[in-house]
Amino acid sequence: MINIIVDAMGGDNAPKAIIDGCIEAVNMQEGFKITLVGKGEVIKKILDDNKFDRNRIDIVNANEVIAGDDTPTKAIKNKKDSSMVVGFNLLKEKKGDAFISAGNTGALMTGALLLIGRIKGIDRPSLPALVPSKKNMVLIIDAGMNTVCRPINYLQFAIMGSIYMKLIYKLQSPKIGLLNVGSEDAKGNDTLKNAFRLLSSGPVNFIGNMEGNDITSGDVDVAVCDGYVGNVSLKLFEGAGSLLLKEIKGIFTKNMITKLCYLLMKSAFKDFKSKFDPDELAGAPVLGVKELVIKSHGSSKAKTIRSAILKRAIPLIQCEVLNEIKNQFENMEVKPSDDEIS
Amino acid sequence: MINIIVDAMGGDNAPKAIIDGCIEAVNMQEGFKITLVGKGEVIKKILDDNKFDRNRIDIVNANEVIAGDDTPTKAIKNKKDSSMVVGFNLLKEKKGDAFISAGNTGALMTGALLLIGRIKGIDRPSLPALVPSKKNMVLIIDAGMNTVCRPINYLQFAIMGSIYMKLIYKLQSPKIGLLNVGSEDAKGNDTLKNAFRLLSSGPVNFIGNMEGNDITSGDVDVAVCDGYVGNVSLKLFEGAGSLLLKEIKGIFTKNMITKLCYLLMKSAFKDFKSKFDPDELAGAPVLGVKELVIKSHGSSKAKTIRSAILKRAIPLIQCEVLNEIKNQFENMEVKPSDDEIS
């Protein structure tokens, strides 16, 4: 049976929100188990207050906690009995199929690289993010793990992103765009121009340069970029959604008539809000490392963790996304020398 | 009296939409004149079909047109009788207070640099863009003119952006943020870290690193970034707005009740749409050159040009933004050597 290892102690609302999210997930869906890692006594107390199938959540004790302001490399190296390091070790020993943490992002990335390790052929693992568009979901890759990228990284992001969208959304040939300042071929700085060249001859369905608004148009399935642009885009997208929802709320609370309209339309707006709710979209896999590591954001609530388990971890395990990435890179000759200007 | 020089031939919808926009502007507001530059016969014919004060729009003939796919430098150097080059020359000869064009962006930037020239002390002029936030308008600078920037450029963008927001929006001390992948001090790549250092000791109210969602929160007044990130952000913002409006439209057309609600709320939604309408926000000045050059986007409609004249050009002239930028840089010692890692 699928087993998901969860860092009970990571994140602003840990451990309660994390544990509540796990219980919600277990109560909503069959077919998987959870291993909670952290301070056993604390976890047990929260579990005891709730109703769920006791056979589906177990606890592995870890006495330390990596804090949000700990230095990533130091924390991973020194806090051997932290929930995060113990969680990584369980994953490495194949005691689970995925490890989810809402803890210190830098430490999680460092742990994924140092304790789990890169897939052969991949220079830079990446953290992608999904956003809604006018058509399907769109994957932004990288969304924050690599703030400076070489052209070869863009190609590798494109290959991983293509596999992700192919397996998870059953797309035959995901359309890959290079996020740029214009849609014409020769746009952008030298790195982007070289990335364009590599992508053009790479094993992906590259449709060329794209602009910021093409993310939301849905004309591409994967937007390839460095983690600086990707991170700003992802967060701006969330911010724009929040701004527009606030404006709409203002319109509906204007007078009695608009308030009545809101009551009449409440259920329709609920679906709409959930589609743009960052908590529903949360849970990003670190693609390019040997096991499935999933980052949930620091302010994760119970529903964020529930989504990360049900909507992110389980589909990624069931669709064998990591295996497909390993296969593709094993059979590929990666030539970082292609990186240079020809 | 203020005179605005307008390139009648630039843009996808030129010359009709451009000329219509000028007529609308003249009919809506007193106190300025317009000089239309382009093919005299064509312009005259369109003007003849409309009602407006004939003393307020005149024509300067130019027989050539710079096309959207012309190579910028070549076009500016060779097409001496194009509406764009003639417009630039009129501006240089002080025959007008601003020059607006919706034509070839590259050519407009090249012309601004070659024919008008940089203000002393400014290494890289910049194209900023305004977006709405939960509080006031926020200026993204640079929004596309410079895809690779050195740390000193960020400082210069910040100074120009600060002056812009101070004079146009009467802010005492505009809050300047550096657009980054996290809000902590030591975030981002080396360029961003050095830009952070320069901004910290610069003559601006620097509040530190900001993330994508801080653009829409309104907690900063100016978001400083390179033109790659800024351009993607601006266009993604527009795209997110368009996506959300589409979703809302879908909700309102669901059934008879929701359709009725829409009718009841129509006027409230009109204000909302206009706030997020890219055409209303259009018209970006090239800050850092000696005269006021304003770029309106290629797909400008009549209302876009009207906005560029009434909401962008005239306030920029009246508030003497360029003079203030010139004064500030004249009295400042710019040391590009501060650029390097210390």
Automatic annotation (TrEMBL), chains A, B:
InterPro entries: FA_synthesis, Phospholipid_synth_PlsX-like. It is found in: Cytoplasm. One of its GO terms (biological process) is fatty acid biosynthetic process. Keywords: Acyltransferase, Cytoplasm, Lipid biosynthesis, Lipid metabolism, Phospholipid biosynthesis, Phospholipid metabolism, Transferase. GO terms for cellular component: cytoplasm. It catalyses: a fatty acyl-[ACP] + phosphate = an acyl phosphate + holo-[ACP]. It is an enzyme of class 2 (transferase). Its main location: cytoplasm. Pfam families: FA_synthesis. Pathway: Lipid metabolism; phospholipid metabolism. Its EC number is 2.3.1.274. One of its GO terms (molecular function) is phosphate:acyl-[acyl carrier protein] acyltransferase activity. Homodimer. Probably interacts with PlsY. Catalyzes the reversible formation of acyl-phosphate (acyl-PO(4)) from acyl-[acyl-carrier-protein] (acyl-ACP). This enzyme utilizes acyl-ACP as fatty acyl donor, but not acyl-CoA. Belongs to the PlsX family. This is Phosphate acyltransferase. It comes from Ruminiclostridium sufflavum DSM 19573. The gene is plsX.
